[in-house]
Amino acid sequence: MMPEDLLLVGRVARPHGLRGHVVVNAESDFPEQRFKPGQVLLIGPSDRVIAHEIREVRFHQGRPILAFAGVQTVEEAEVLAGTELWVPQSTLDPLPAGTYYRHDLLGCEVRDSGGSLVGRVTAIEGTLDRSYLVVDGDVMLPLVEGICLEVDMAARRIVVDPPDGLIDLYRGREG
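Above: the chain's sequence. Below: its structure in token form.
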């Protein structure tokens, strides 16, 4: 498996308790689906991953706390601190129409409704119900109906109609 076939779904923040559990900072819009018992995650840098099956899961303050098969002590969990958690793209379920995986939006060209180039999506921030497109690292546009008018994945283009002055505000220009 090549690193470009993998998707980052989280990072191990730290050990939790004495029995090998770890706290995860999720990088997924669907943590309840991504982190469940029996799910196999690939742990490590994307070019040297090791498969680990999730044995137990619980959520605390929105963050998953995982126990992996074969990791039973706090010392073994400490070794995982800071590591990345990956899944193969082939394991992703199709999404309903009008919804997108974050990684699919990265790199899309963003144009306003008049056709002017705003920039390219460099990141997506926020939660599933309050996501923002980060364009060229400095403009944040809410990913909501009424502002994002069209998402054309085939053309890798997003058409937006932001409120007057929003883009200028981020870029420090007077309207």
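The chain has two domains: 3-91, 102-170.
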